[in-house]
Design brief:
- The protein is 63% helix and 0% strand.
- The chain is mostly helical.
- Helix 1 runs antiparallel to helix 2, helix 2 packs antiparallel against helix 3 and helix 5 packs across helix 6.
- The protein binds ligand 1PZ.
- Ligand 1PZ binds next to helix 3, helix 5, helix 6 and helix 7.
């Protein structure tokens, strides 16, 4: 189905969305005002990766998606990332759980985790997914998570699929998405 389809595969869409954001920011070195809408669209694309990780990461998915959803809601009121931060700084709410600024930082950490993970992958073929994910998590998110969460994540790492299995899952998920786009309603499931 992938071969017949002319639409862009989801992984490519993710890359393109973030390259667009990068290009925009590079072109505005002085005045970096990033549209919240655009940021949310790019961040939402990433959710597809979770379905490849297995049930143990359902909680991480729900956490990530709920933070993105909050920002989507905020985008009805605020135009840019900066306006959210300005508002929360003025009201001393940057660190308040549930504030848009805090959720923005959580989403950014999630994105950064994926960046670190794929960097690990590119640096060597020997890395298992668990090793790569553990290293990326330790670098990017662990310093900002409670002991309870860090312990749960460490246990969950043992439930991750192998690196090869991840790639298989990824391909299956992506081609299922493609089929769904070409033949809506044909594939069953959620
Ligand atoms: C292929 C990719 C494999 C990567 C596997 C790494 C999984 C890391 C799991 C991280 C679990 C996060 C658990 C929840 C953390 C919560 O305590 C905080 C609460 O925030 P608060 O409400 O106090 O402000 N939530 C978050 O930090 C939200 C973001 C977590 C999601 C990051 C995962 C991104 C990984 C994407 C992989 C597709």
């Amino acid at each position: 189905a992938m071969a017949e389809s002319t639409s862009t595969p989801p992984l490519t869409s993710i890359v393109e969305a973030f390259e667009e954001l990068d290009k925009f920011l590079q072109s505005q070195p002085q005045q970096q005002r990033l549209s919240l809408d655009t940021f949310c669209q790019a961040s939402s694309l990433v959710s597809i990766l979770f379905s490849c990780l297995g049930l143990a990461f359902k909680f991480a998915e729900m956490e990530y998606v709920s933070k993105v959803d909050d920002l989507v809601e905020a985008s009805k009121t605020y135009d840019t990332l900066e306006s959210i931060i300005d508002f929360d700084v003025a009201n001393d709410m940057v660190k308040t759980p549930g504030s848009h600024s805090r959720n923005l930082r959580r989403v950014r950490q999630g994105l950064d985790l994926i960046r670190a993970l794929f960097e690990q992958f590119l640096s060597t073929d020997d890395y298992s997914l668990r090793e790569a994910a553990s290293t990326a998590y330790a670098q990017v998110c662990a310093p900002y998570h409670s002991w309870t969460i860090r312990t749960a994540v460490a246990a969950g790492m043992y439930a991750l699929p192998s690196r090869d299995q991840l790639l298989v899952n990824l391909e299956e998920t992506l081609s299922r998405e493609e089929d769904e786009k070409v033949h809506p309603g044909l594939t069953s499931g959620d």
